[in-house]
């Protein structure tokens, strides 16, 4: 740098120097501020237009009217440009949001599923899923009958259709909008632009129905999808022989190429690894099994299978090796590599992370072609500006956020601002030269080991930096902290390079001849097997990951604001020590704040009946002393259609309440829709014990055997209880002791088991459901499981509950289980139904309200929270009407 420029930069402040070197960085920050303000409703388009006009006018005056010396002395022009950028991107966000919300199709949608016939065109390439049940989301369908009747098969299909007409009565009505079609069979002959006619059940995206749940409407808005339609049977999707929708020829061509590559990989690679191969090479993650997805998440390696900059860089380097071997001139090499980057970005779907990577790689290649200086930070800022303008709604998608945070961290780690050389720097350079001379006298193997160690340490430093900087975002989105990812990502990096290169060669050679792809397919498969084994081992390392309640959003924003200030004010020197200290202190403070259970009023009992569709999951919290955390229990934990055994509804509700430890789980009986989420829950929470009716686990088989194995692995004691025993929340459990206990002094709630007797009754598991009665403040709360005759008669022969009780309807509000007998016995003032769409039928409410009871159904109102204080006062809240 010339001496005059160096002296001038030294006289300028840090912010001024950075703005001169990185002019796009403040603009990218302003664009993100504009998008955020618009997203949270703090700036609308009208206000933005006024502000933008005022800023543009002031900037014009600042540049053209030199007599306005006051404006010129304040150097207002850069700030006016920033203000203008905020307004422009705020206007752009509002325009995209409003255009997607104004689709005509929304007028024909209802909350319950309804049969419909619509026609339109395929808007995106068809995706395959591993299992047909995965295509039907229980959170959205909430229809146990539909889940149970879906046919089996090897894969399902998902396609996005642009709607042109929808049938209303006997005529087709023109409309606009896009729907996501979930089919229970493989679709291999439809491409973007094809006209189709679809027969199925359509419904709109519903707001969250349980505490802690993400709003799927935001996801649908980002994808520009307005409804979801479920299709059963291959004859329910008909192709319409007509002209192809114009404007989709490129997407159609890339879909055909991607489909061909998918077929090649499926044929060349073992089915157990084909899902990993498709995710790694083509970005198609839908065929990954649930267990592998969870292992990738907890080890912090899920990004390896999300096509991004690393994948694109490997592809470009592989292409460079090929073109160099062919003797192509440097200028033509750059052009070819840019075309390869374009092709791969389109082939993998053009998602924001890969588009960001494409912009960065293209900037490097263009700078080489034009012999211009390349600024990685400016290129990253340019990528942010382009993506925020093109797809502003993706700014709040986790993939885009983590992609930019990770790349920005790597750039900040590797490239700090240059400064004038000092005497200390020159002395250090001399010492480094002396060290190099000393090392050169050592053996060849010693030098190799030192080189590997240095490289490995450098990679560990990069991995640790990225893990630390992405930790708040990952924690907030996924509720997990993964320290093991620092090491695992470094170990998997070389293997991923080999697997990706071999997979790409498998696809390319497979297009020429299937036999030519066999060697590289074998290499890709073996490498993926090794990667999968390493991920499995890492997922089982004690202390390798932690499941925690998410921190509040303001904690996350505070962290990134502090990091930005440190990097801005301390561009060199000990900035990374400050960032490390900040990450350590922030994690401790945020962890303490997020894991504090939400307290209840003293002597208050709270029951939350979660909306899980056809199933039961009831969260019970009791606050006996206001200075201590509430006791927390679960009554049942499962739902129909949960074939993977995940607990995504229950865990989010527990985390929303700040719960990390469960005092116990009470299982009513051995139906899967009452326990199939417990095994997964045990891996995320500290469960003190499990309580079951007599004989439930004596002869376990199938999924019940898996549950017993999980409880044994986690060393969770299991206790049997029967009618006449009292459960205690106050005293610790001891192995071998009976479950019957008396409550500690001062605790007003009494937990009494009313059914089954110790010897059981004649009948199935439903008849022997564990019926729990909680007495608090003069009220009774009865939880009967799936009680049915002859268990119903055994219960109703016992002393009746006092009037004004609260009853959970037996068997999810079934009309055929003599619920009227239980109603007469319990005399409830409130009946709660934990069930799906069948439970929302009018005849169910009519039956359950025949004695004047108020009836609430989770499928209609979402989660239901009931609070009873020491005096018996009752408070009922429904999540759809009054979220908490």
Give the averaged pLDDT, no decimals: 81
Q: Please tally the β strands and state the result.
A: 26
Estimate what percentage of residues fall within beta strands: 15-25%
Major sheet strand order: 17-16-14-12-11-10-25-26
Give the % helix.
Answer: 40-55%
Structural class: alpha/beta
Tell me the layout of helices and strands.
Layout: H1 3-11, H2 14-21, H3 24-39, H4 45-64, H5 69-73, H6 77-101, E1 114-122, E2 127-129, H7 138-141, H8 144-149, E3 156-168, E4 171-183, E5 195-204, H9 216-223, E6 227-231, E7 237-239, H10 249-268, H11 271-282, H12 290-298, H13 309-325, H14 330-347, H15 352-370, H16 376-390, H17 398-414, H18 423-440, H19 444-478, E8 480-481, H20 485-512, H21 518-539, E9 546-547, H22 553-569, H23 575-594, E10 604-609, E11 615-623, E12 631-639, H24 648-656, E13 661-662, E14 664-666, H25 678-682, E15 686-687, E16 690-692, H26 703-713, E17 718-720, E18 726-727, E19 750-755, E20 771-776, E21 779-783, H27 791-796, E22 805-808, H28 819-826, E23 828-833, H29 842-848, E24 854-857, H30 858-861, E25 864-868, E26 874-878
Helix pairs in contact: 3-6, 3-16, 4-6, 10-11, 10-20, 11-21, 12-21, 13-14, 13-15, 13-20, 14-15, 15-16, 16-17, 17-19, 19-20, 19-22, 20-21, 22-23
